[in-house]
Amino acid sequence: MIAAALLVAIALPAPAPAPPPASAPARAAPTIRLWLSDDGHYRPGDRAKVQVETRDDGYLVVVHVDPDKRVRVLFPLNPGDDNRVRGGKRYEIQGRGGREAFAVDARSGRGTVYAAVSRERFQFDRYVNGGQWDFRALDGALTSSDVEADLNEFVRGISQADFDYDLLPYDISRRSLYAYAPYGYAPYYGYGYPYYYPYPAFSASFFFGLEFGRPRRAFFPAFRGFRRFR
Q1: Can you give the pTM of this predicted structure?
Q2: Rg over CA atoms, the chain
Q3: CA-to-CA distance for 146 and 190, rounded, in angstroms?
Q4: Which of 138, 144, 180, 196 has the most CB atoms at less than 10 Å from its CB?
Q5: What burial class does residue 111 get, using C-beta atoms within 10 Å of its C-beta: 0-12 exposed, 13-18 middle, 19+ buried?
Q6: pLDDT above 70 covers what percent of the chain?
């Protein structure tokens, strides 16, 4: 009886191993991503860098709206320039002469950088005059206080297919004035030889200076997810 029970136990199939835990689905690469230098925090006189990367090949347009609501196309630099980009490659948007994308002219406020990519060419005709960007027509693209919605309408009007876009706001703050008093040395006469000790240069030797500057800052990306319109 015991031998028979052992045979039955041996003949039974081993339990199937538990399935491995399901791995989390891989996050899809954003269709388009923007980066701004200095994490989008500027002061008057700064020059801003803009970088953009698309997931797929396509045609790119990058638009800048400053705090005074002036609309300027950063890319393509001229309406007739080739604006096709390769997917998976990060591009730095450059201004004329190979300089940074734009200069920060406003004294304070909030601006926006907007980028859109489409598989079909954009038609810029209504915003071109004499082969150059028509600034008056571009400024007319903003018709409300909702910059994002207005720029979507702008791209809808120049696109021939669906498009994806990303946008990043940036802020401008005034430069600070710093006052400082350098330290000097004054003799102290007591027992023995005179010696010197540091003292703040106040009273008769007070020094007041103005320093226009800011801490050293690096190029840090600020990530925002992509959005699909239409």
Answers
A1: 0.68
A2: 31
A3: 73
A4: 138
A5: buried
A6: 63
